[in-house]
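Structure tokens please, single chain.
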Amino acid sequence: MSGSEGRWARVLGSPLPWLALAVAWTWPTALHPVAATPGSAHTDLWEGLWSLWFVATKLSAGELPLHTEGLLDPGGSLWPADMVSGVLVAPITLLAGPAAAWSALVVGHVTLRGWLGAKLGARYAGGSAAVGVATGVILALAPVGLSAVHNGATEALGDTWALAVAWLALRVVPGGPRPGLGWTAAAGLLLAVSAWAHWYGGVGAFALWAVLGLRKGLDPGTRARFALALLVGALLTAPVAWEAREVTTARDNVVGLKSPAQLARLRRTIGPADLAAFVRPAPYRSPDFPKIGRFGEDYWHCPYLGWTGLALAVLGLRARGARWAWALLPLGVGLALGPVLTHGGSAVILHGQRAIPLPYFLVDRLPPFSSLALVWRFAWVAQLGVALCAAQGVAVLVALAPRAARWSAAGVALAAGFEAALFAPTRGLPGHVDANAPAPIVALAQEPAGIVMTWPAIGALPTLYEQVTHGHALAASLNFPASRGSLQVAAAVKQGRESAVKVARDVGVRYVVLHLDARADADPQGPTLADWRAFPVLAEDDRVRVLKLW
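Here you go.
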């Protein structure tokens, strides 16, 4: 290897180029981590930011983040969706706020996905660092990952842990030294962390580990170590999963956990991936939430695998070497499609009564699969398979023109980047929102203690995130923007100010935050903006108006 080739390999093998890609792709987040927070305003972004703040403030007070006094006054139990990330970025959250912490998480995870992906691709294809470049770009800019950022799904970033799991497994090569007990313990811990961070990612990581443990050429002793690591991971995961279930099903929980029937319905409607969505480029969206949603929700479910990666994967069939990554495609696609075939957010029905069953149907009622709803997220497993197989395609190109290896790698990386930027359904993502608190919310923080309600009572509003600034208790739960008391107040507003004040005092609701850019008439039976004019205004701007009921 020449000196220039060695420097090239060292640069590609470091996280720096992937950090540059992450910063450029999310720009101007690195410059303005709060004013340009990655994500969409009409998604779960605000709940994700609130969760990071909740975990950090509880830990700083020396408490476990399993109970809140600020929701559905006097509070209740809850299990944050992203406990692992909340703990990891707690110092940033406490110093700079949850929006800055989320921005750091996004940039960090895109960086890690690119860096680990490049290493995985090079090792899988048995080539130089240049061979892994395509894998790194494909995974760093994977639509399934970018859509998670758009949705503010902090927990979905936990899929990155599966890459660390794969890297640890690939360090064990057929015919090589048998891994020791330290490797087994580390693998078991990584598997558990994958599950703690993201239950979907955990299922994917365990499945990936099983595939890697069944590779050809591993001796029986090595396979036993893989099985032991799997057992260690399961044993570490089980008590946390049990505790999460106990907390979220407690009578005082504030999560609003969906019933088994609701989860099953989601797995047959908007939860799974549309088969066509794996390969159809922009502007295809299925389900298309802006069209099927009632209140302007902007969620984005995108399992698109990318034609650049698929073409390289097919080319890679000409290369000699491992083939186990191909098993990840049917595994990931099969899980992501859910129990029945869907299109446009609803099941495909034959002859007006029969749905089309799919492989997930066989495990639909088994734990943990029965507790999942947004199974389209399993597309990450298929995306990993495509990215690894694409590395073998790059290896074929490099073999055809060894002296142009770096140019082949650069060309492939640019092709994957251009597809992500111009042709993938997630082109233009992630967007950005201004997470600075509106002036009226800052003013509310100076008012006497009292419960705050939001109107209209619809999802995807920053109800929870506003609590980070104003500090008052909320008449809301983690998944629902209203409590029984706040709905009673809203109903009383239609009857006049005197009636509303009486009800508000009885239930403890003292303040109302009206979101002027949302549909105030979302509930035809509820009050309109005109009905709220009978109450004094504490402060307002073009986004929110804060009222004091009493």
